[in-house]
Amino acid sequence: MRTRLPALVLSGLLAATLAGCAASEPSTGGSAAPSSNTSADAGTGKPALTKLSSTEGGLSGGTTLTLTGENLKGVTNVHFGTVDAGDITVKNDTTIEVTVPSSFNYVVGKVPVTALVGQTAAAGSAEYSYEVKTDVDRQMAYLFKHWNNYNTAQWGDMNAGGGDCANFTSQGLIARGWKQNPQWNSPGVNVASSTESWRFVPTMDKWLTNDASTLGLTKLTLADRDKLKVGDIGVFLWTGEGRPDHVMTVSSVKKVNGHTEVAFVSHNLDGDYRDLDQLIKDKNAANKPGQEMQAWFYSIPDAKA
CA–CA separation, 145 vs 203, rounded Å? Predict the structure, then answer.
């Protein structure tokens, strides 16, 4: 188990031979539990949820689900467990369409689906089962299992050499289904013998850029954040000068009041939902006048089922 370090140690990490990483407190996400309204029944004029168009899906969510019931026009939100659904559209009094959110912390299992009118739960019960179905599901399940519980027995730990962020990102890509090749590989626990593109941020960045067409990657900038998807790779240059310092994997993309919020999972410092806007704010505040943090991203083709 790793203890996350405070942000004040950042400068020491950036001086290391390998790319350093920055601290950020993870967010557990989710919403407060709604008040219960289990006494309401369909046919009474009160909102009631009766059926889901599908009862299972992948950990990463993103699919459109139709909810049916009665008196649903007043529904303001839908929870999958404690996680808010996205893009809720009330079609009519009996039908709602929602975008299924990712499973909380990418955990496999069943969660209750609750339609809300304000803070009051509609009557009726439904369950949705989160399962590992896609390459992205496998990638995220692995990263969330090991962001604070290093898989050293299989892949070693590069912290003593300056940082484990690239090694951890590579592990996630292996879990996603990427295959090792002469340009990018690791023998496992003896990670110091891996290629630099596996464990060293600047070389990994060059490899992703040079092999982008072969790998099917699209390189994006900060201005393209609305195009990012869970499982994409972010590369960071904290001071805006020199070579890149850090690499992370996108763990959350949400549209909030028209703004795309992006978070990342990483090692060094260990975090599960490291917020992009907070990183930009913190790094630019610490930089010299005129220096701004830079970041760019590699969008990976949609995962296969």
Answer: 26
Do residues 140 and 106 touch, judged by C-beta distance below 8 A?
Answer: yes
State how far the Cα of 142 lies from the Cα of 176, in Å rounded to an integer. Answer: 9
Which amino acid is located at 204 in the chain?
Answer: M
For residue 112, pLDDT over 50 is answered with: yes
Q: How far is CA 296 from the centre of its chain?
A: 16
**CA gap 230, 60 in Å, rounded:** 7
Residues in a beta bridge with 123:
48
Is the dihedral angle over the CA atoms 7, 12, 14, 20 positive or is it negative? negative
Express each pLDDT in 239-295 by its tens digit.
Answer: 999 999 999 999 999 988 899 999 999 999 899 999 999 999 999 999 999 899 999
Distance CA 274, CA 265 (A): 6
**Whole-Å CA distances, 287 to 254, 269, 270, 276, 281:** 28, 19, 22, 16, 10
In this structure, what token pair is assigned to residue 222?
A: 């900060």
Q: Do 138 and 58 touch, CB atoms closer than 8 A? A: no
Three-state secondary structure along the chain? CCCCCCHHHHHHHHCCCCCCCCCCCCCCCCCCCCECCCCCCCCCCCCEEEEECCCEEECCCCCEEEEEEECCCCCCEEEECCEECEEEEEEECCEEEEECCCCHHHCCEEEEEEEEECCEECECCCEEEEECCCHHHHHHHHHHHHCCCCCHHHHCCCHHHCCCHHHHHHHHHHHHCCCCECCECCCCCCHHHCCHHHHCHHHHHHHHHHCHHHHCCEEEEHHHHHHCCCCCEEEEECCCCCCCCEEEEEEEEEEECCEEEEEEEECCCCEEEEEHHHHHHHHHHHCCCCCCCEEEEEECCCCCC
pLDDT attached to residue 11: 37
